[in-house]
Amino acid sequence: MDLLLDLIVTLSRWSRSHLNDISLAIIASLLVLIGPAINAWVQRNTASLNFIFRTLIFVLLCAIGYGLLIVYATPYLAQALGYFNNFTLAPVLILVFCIIGILADRS
User: Could you give the CA distance from residue 14 to residue 12 in angstroms, rounded to a whole number?
Assistant: First the structure.
């Protein structure tokens, strides 16, 4: 049991030094999974608009919207993950990536 706890603590300490990169990976993965649904919703709601306006809205959503979300949400997620102690951080990260993998497999 001590070996397992030592492994968890070691993984958590390593993860803690890379929380910004891990947070970026989580947010980017979620955007890849949720992005098509958001794009379809925007496409449905802008179908009656002129082609130029639809294209402009789509470009603004993808370039600015998703870009700003990645840039500004990453530090908040890293800060939130930083609140976990060394016994819970690694299992939480493994669980989060497993859930993202399951969602990706289903879509």
Answer: 5
**pLDDT at residue 22 is higher than 90:** yes
Q: What is the distance between the alpha carbons of residues 107 and 72, in angstroms, rounded to a whole number?
A: 26
Please answer whether residues 42 and 55 qualify as being in contact, where contact means their C-beta atoms are separated by less than 8 angstroms.
Answer: no
Tell the burial category of 19 from Cβ atoms under 10 Å away from its Cβ (0-12, 13-18, 19+): buried
Does residue 13 carry a pLDDT above 80? yes
CA 39, 42, 44, 48 torsion: positive or negative? negative
> Is there a contact between 33 and 104 (Cβ–Cβ < 8 Å)?
yes
Q: How does 60-90 read in b/e, with b if 16+ C-beta sit within 10 Å? A: eeeeebbeeeeeebbeebbeebeebeeeebb
CA distance 73 to 15: 18
CA distances from 94 to 12, 15, 22, 29, 37 (A): 10, 11, 11, 14, 25
